[in-house]
Amino acid sequence: MRILIVDDDPKLRSFLQQGLKEQGYECAEAATVAEARSALTQAFDLVLLDVMLPDGEGWQVLKALREKDRSTAVIFLTARSLVDERVQGLEMGADDSLASKS
């Protein structure tokens, strides 16, 4: 299984990648919307996608992905806990979201 981790926090990306690799997953990472779009020219089974990125929002990445691919699973990682934003992500085609406690 190939997983793309999209988050601007290098420590979080490293932590997630280390844990996933230990479980046998192949991982790639991106820190920006631009890097995520570039990475998504390749196939992934799952995208772990941060909402807030330095050059835009994860919503942009999700929209671009869903325009060409409905099968890749997407889970939003967000520090935001507003229900409306979580619903928005699901309506846009995310499969789930995980909000951290602030």
How would you describe this protein?
The chain is of the alpha/beta class and 102 residues long. It has a single domain (2-99), classed as Rossmann fold (3-Layer(aba) Sandwich). Helix content is 40%, strand content 28%. It is built from four helices and seven strands; from the N terminus they run βαβαβββαβαβ. It has helices at residues 10-22, 33-39, 58-68, 83-92; strands spanning 2-6, 26-30, 46-50, 52-53, 56-57, 73-78, 96-99. A five-stranded parallel beta sheet has the order 2-1-3-6-7, sandwiched between helices. A two-stranded antiparallel ribbon has the order 4-5. The protein is globular, with a radius of gyration of 12 Å.
Would you spell out the secondary-structure blueprint of this structure?
Layout lengths: L1 E5 L3 H13 L3 E5 L2 H7 L6 E5 L1 E2 L2 E2 H11 L4 E6 L4 H10 L3 E4 L3
Parallel strand pairs: 1-2, 1-3, 3-6, 6-7
Antiparallel strand pairs: 4-5
Q: If you compute it from the alpha carbons, what radius of gyration comes out, rounded to the nearest whole angstrom? A: 12 Å
Global shape: globular
Give me the CATH fold name.
Rossmann fold
Second rung of CATH, namely the architecture? 3-Layer(aba) Sandwich
User: What is the arithmetic mean of pLDDT?
Assistant: 89
Task: Give the total of beta strands.
Answer: 7
The helix-and-strand class reads alpha/beta
CATH class division: Alpha Beta
- pLDDT below 50 for ≥5 consecutive residues: which ranges? none
| Ends apart, CA distance between termini | 31 Å
What's the CATH H-level homologous superfamily?
Answer: Response regulator
